[in-house]
Amino acid sequence: MPVDHRRLCGPEESHAPALWAAEEGGDESPRDPWALRPLFARAAVLSQADGSAYVELSGGTKVLCAAWGPREAPEPPTAAAAAAALRMGRLQCDFRRAPFASRGARRRPGSTAERDAERDLAAALRTALEPTLQLERYPRTRLLVSVLLLQDEGSVLAAAISAGALALADSGVQMYDLAVGCALCRGPDPSAAWVLQPGEAEERRAAVRLTVALLPALNQVSAVQGAGSGGTPEDWAEALCFGLDACYRLYPVLRQSLLQATCRRRRAM
Amino acid sequence: MSERRATLRRLSCSNGASHCSRLLEGTAASRERRKRKGLSAVRREEAGSMAAVVLSEPEKLYIVHGVQEDLRVDGRGCEDYRCAEVETDVVSNTSGSARVKLGNTDILVGVKAEMGTPKIEKPDEGYLEFCVDCSANATPEFEGRGGEELGTEITSTFYTVFSSENSVDLKSLCINPREHCWVLYVDVLLLVCGGNLFDAISIAVKAALFNTRIPKVRVLEDEEGSKEIELSDDPYDCIRLNVENVPLIVTLSKIGYRHVVDATLEEEACSLASLLVSVTSKGALTSIKKVGRGSLDPESIFEMMETGKKVGKALHVALQKILDEEESLGTSRQKVGFLG
């Protein structure tokens, strides 16, 4: 059989080796289900945006968020949309992942899969943040929230919700409350317990994932998004309670960061 | 008369209207405050991505009051579906198709099986691709790029619902690990939007998957190791999908203090937030998602999940009965098509 010796004959297509790599750290010591990963939040980090926030989970998830206060909205396309715009403002959410955000191969920023994933996250962010805003105070305008994910180590949507709410509050628009996001998941093992703020590996292995967002002062749930192998309503209710409780515990951290941002601003004045 | 007005006021606030108490479903103080705002307080409309209807304040009140009394505008109770018409095998160029009419909502789903390569992470499984087309036939708002947002929302919801491992047996779609598998393209057409799109689409998708027939193929390998795929000569020699575990979506819309299933467009305009739950025939909830502009009380989410389970199970039984009946008629069935 004639063989071309002049060049290296590799296979026609190649794949990243990470796919076949052995699962590392499969047997981690079980986490305390009540334990929350330390969360760092800081408001007013960007000078150009009306409001901004940075949220980091100790596992490594880093989210940067900017919010722009009421600005003129473009002409609505239809009569119904125009009537709605007259009554209340619009929240527009934009979600971007840095090309180097996740492990493994670099994702191409413009690719369809990437764009779809970003659009889904933006839509989820919008449903979570809209209930916090008093949009009827801003008719004919739009509010813009733009989230940039710098590093993805799990619980991304939850971190983005918290950051978005902080940035909106920091921009000074009128709100009902902050939204606090929290993710949780449960392993495939039937006896596995729910774990709060899972890391990227835990999330990948999980059989059921859930993200909740809470407006703590009003005790209202602004986002619930969960999927996985089936459970009874009681199972989901239990998980929901667990997640909401975690949101209550995270709330003081966000409030504190807002307070600090205000103090910093006053000192600078 | 005065008593009647009192009820009017009480119910009007439940629709959630005054600025700061909209989100609350509780405290006596806020209820007092809302009471004082009275009738003029209802000034909201869900005009999100769905086709919007414009309702006047009294019309909305009428709907909300009705829901409160468990009697809806069309005479249904809060947990009743509208009459649904299901017909499978309506488009001959597909592997499987179904058309569902739920009240005014009219959905056509076609499934086409094509050969493709398995995904690299799952070399021994086929996969499903969803595509939702919001054409301007359904509502003029979908013209141009208008329907895109709704289209992606529906598509991503269905990917999530079908991401659960055992919804469809994907292993049965594999022809030749790493090389060939069946890809099921599920195309959803919205013909008329009359409220409750998600439920209607999920019924249509399940019916279409039930109806799907994938030709049987065999892989022949000669001595040099090259593989050949051979299609069976008999056109009736095909595999069917097991749709027993395919979930149905139940949308529960919060109206006032209660929630309803299968909301019409008008009822959707009165609802600020709804919960989508996907329920399997055994009554397990495989996914939940809140949609809409408002927020929900944790207690009401628990209640909605219970209702979703109950209603979803009944819906599965009813759908399976219809599908089996239609199946038993075989070729003798008179097709209704689009003029029925």
SSE blueprint:
The complex is a heterodimer of chains A (269) and B (340).
Chain A: E1 39-43, E2 51-57, E3 62-72, H1 79-87, E4 90-97, H2 112-129, E5 141-151, H3 156-171, E6 180-186, E7 194-196, H4 200-205, E8 208-215, E9 220-231, H5 233-268
Parallel strand pairs in A: 4-5
Antiparallel strand pairs in A: 1-2, 2-3, 3-5, 6-7, 6-8, 8-9
Helix pairs in contact in A: 2-3, 3-5
Chain B: H1 2-14, H2 28-37, H3 57-68, E1 84-88, E2 96-102, E3 105-116, E4 127-133, H4 148-161, E5 174-176, E6 180-192, H5 197-211, E7 213-215, E8 217-221, E9 227-231, E10 238-240, E11 248-255, E12 258-261, H6 265-270, E13 273-279, E14 285-292, H7 298-329
Parallel strand pairs in B: 4-6
Antiparallel strand pairs in B: 1-2, 2-3, 3-6, 5-6, 7-10, 8-9, 11-12, 11-13, 13-14
Helix pairs in contact in B: 1-2, 1-3
Give an overview of the whole structure.
The complex is a heterodimer of chains A (269) and B (340). Chain A has 269 residues and is an alpha+beta fold. Chain A has five helices and nine strands; from the N terminus they run βββαβαβαββαββα. Chain A has helices spanning 79-87, 112-129, 156-171, 200-205, 233-268; strands at residues 39-43, 51-57, 62-72, 90-97, 141-151, 180-186, 194-196, 208-215, 220-231. In chain A, strands 1-2-3-5-4 form a five-stranded mixed beta sheet. A four-stranded antiparallel beta sheet of chain A has the order 7-6-8-9, sandwiched between helices. In chain A, a hairpin with a 7-residue loop joins strand 1 and strand 2. Chain B is α+β, with helices and mostly antiparallel strands and 340 residues long. In chain B, 30% of the residues lie in helices and 26% in strands. Chain B contains seven helices and 14 strands. In chain B, the strands form four sheets. In chain B, strands 1, 2, 3, 4, 5 and 6 form a six-stranded mixed beta sheet that branches. The longest helix of chain B has 32 residues, at 298-329. Mean pLDDT of chain B is 82; it is low at 1-50.
